[in-house]
Amino acid sequence: MTSDFERCPTCRTPLTTETVDGLWRPFCPTCRNIVNLSPKLVAAALVGDADGLLLVKRSYGAEKGLWAPPGGYVEQGEVVEEAARREAYEETGIEVAIKDLVGLYSTEGRPIVLAAFSADVVGGELHDRSPEVQEVGFFPVNNLPPLAFAKDRSIIDTWVKQLDTPLQS
Ligand SMILES: [Zn+2]
Q: In this structure, are 4 and 61 located in the same domain?
């Protein structure tokens, strides 16, 4: 079971698990409540310029030291495109304008759903001041550094095919 909760959010009793609708779910034996686990939505921005694709080197977690497009969790009540724009700015200092949805990506057994958007640079300056990243940079799409996630390469390939103006390579 993958859960953010070890204890019941209502009464703090340690959770057990129950099978409901064929899935293991966190269950509170005191309240008899099932803790509903929703997917977590992550928004990412694929930002291109003349030098290629904007990537960040992650500074935490299992993917520490590997590269990915800027992105992060969508806050409750936040417009998804705005989350992609905000994360790109927070992680890289680059102001972007979100364009199109490149795709929506999920993996069986994983809690994350990723919404990937294409975006254009509209301002800002590259920085690596975010605590979540070690380095930032633009990379030619045919010479990318080691990527953090298995799906990233196919997401990037899809993005490249959708571009109005081909990137230099
Ligand atoms: Zn409870």
A: no
